[in-house]
Write a structure and sequence with these properties.
The protein has 2 domains: about 5-80, Chemotaxis receptor methyltransferase CheR, N-terminal domain (Chemotaxis Receptor Methyltransferase Cher, domain 1, Orthogonal Bundle); about 90-280, 3-Layer(aba) Sandwich (Rossmann fold). It starts with 6 loop residues before the first strand and ends in a 7-residue tail after the last strand. The model is unreliable at about 1-5 (pLDDT under 50). It is built from 11 helices and 12 strands. The strands form 3 sheets. Strands 8-4-3-9-10-12-11 form a 7-stranded mixed β-sheet. Strands 5-7-6 form a 3-stranded antiparallel β-sheet. The chain has a two-stranded antiparallel sheet with strand order 1-2. It has helices at about 15-30, 40-50, 55-65, 70-80, 90-110, 125-140, 155-165, 170-175, 180, 200-205, 235-250, and strands at about 5-10, 10, 115-120, 145-155, 165-170, 185, 195, 205-210, 220-225, 250-255, 270-275, 280. About 40% of the residues lie in helices and about 20% in strands. α1 runs parallel beside α3. The chain is of the alpha/beta class. It is globular, with a radius of gyration of 21 Å. The structure holds S-adenosylmethionine (SAM).
Length: about 290
């Protein structure tokens, strides 16, 4: 377990340096680094100090505010984001997708309509591919239709991993979600390594996107999963994001968030809670 003090691997971080790192991280990403995360920050950044041959965190802060600061902040973000994820995490959202949402969306796609799903803060892609598998189960010919899944994350290493589409499954993955192997191809000679099979792979497009920046996507989404991402942001940052997600949804579209997250504030007006951490954008005219 990582200690909650500013010390790890023989390195320590002073209060001023920690505040500088935390301020840069929050400005770049929205992620709030509280004091209890000091040990975690030191443990993750100390190998960066070694790679840059820096004696301590004060010297690291000088790099962050120097001419190479912008590039170094990108490196810092890669080290400080938490990328924990897995296939079919928080399965009730996939149940809702299968039973409540996909029947309508599949009918729309079959009649030539455009259907878009978004995994916002996708980490290494398991969430987006789980969505693709649900779609393929409901509509095996989905890949050539106009159903697409966008998977975005601030962490470019995770985007590369998702695009590579190779995963090592755990025993739990295999026993809890037998559907996985149906949409994967075993990698010869590598125990429990799999590649996502082509129909699911071809439906997902990965792109790096910082949720704090303007979003370049033109069209709206039918389903947005943004789960276990905003939990790291301040309430103020969350309150700015909710209306942007509401605006990015088609009327009747669905927003799924993480188990410990809640939509609060003015964004709740157009969004209606329809399940556990599951919201629906009210159809036009239904808003009071
Ligand atoms: C804990 S993972 C969640 C992955 C997946 N959604 C899930 O629930 O399993 C959080 C992800 O959010 C990403 N993230 C953090 N801040 C972000 C930001 N400002 N813009 C986009 N992605 C961000 C991180 O890089 C990380 O991959």
């Amino acid at each position: 377990m990582i200690p909650a003090v500013g010390q790890a691997n023989g390195q320590t971080i002073g209060d001023a340096a920690f505040r500088t790192v935390a301020r840069h991280l929050q400005e770049q990403t929205g992620i709030v680094l509280t004091d209890v995360k000091k040990g975690l920050a030191v443990s993750r950044l100390s190998r960066r100090l070694r790679a840059l041959q820096l004696p301590d965190f004060d010297a690291y802060c000088d790099v962050l505010s120097g001419p190479d600061g912008a590039a170094e902040m990108q490196e810092m973000v890669l080290l400080l984001t938490t990328n924990v994820t897995r296939f079919f995490r928080e399965p009730h959202h996939y149940d809702a997708l299968r039973t409540q949402i996909l029947p309508g969306l599949v009918a729309k796609a079959k009649s030539g309509g455009r259907v878009r799903l978004w995994s916002a803060g996708c980490s290494s892609g398991e969430e987006a591919y789980s969505m693709a598998m649900c779609v393929l189960e409901a509509f095996p010919q989905a890949a050539p239709s106009n159903i697409r899944i966008l998977a975005t994350d601030i962490d470019s290493n995770m985007i590369t991993k998702g695009q590579t589409a190779r995963y090592q499954l755990s025993e739990d993955d295999l026993s809890e979600h037998p559907i996985l192997l149906k949409h994967m191809v075993k990698v010869p000679g590598r125990d429990r390594y799999v590649d996502i099979a082509e129909p699911a792979k071809s439906m997902v497009r990965f792109a790096r996107l910082n949720l704090q920046d303007p979003w370049p996507m033109q069209g709206k989404f039918d389903v947005i999963f943004c789960r276990n991402v905003v939990i790291y942001f301040s309430t103020e940052t969350q309150q700015k994001l909710w209306p942007r997600f509401a605006k990015a949804l088609n009327h009747g579209g669905h927003l799924m968030i993480g188990h410990s997250e809640r939509v609060t504030g003015p964004a709740l007006t157009p969004l209606r809670s329809v399940g556990v951490t599951h919201y629906e954008l009210q159809a036009q005219g239904a808003m009071t």
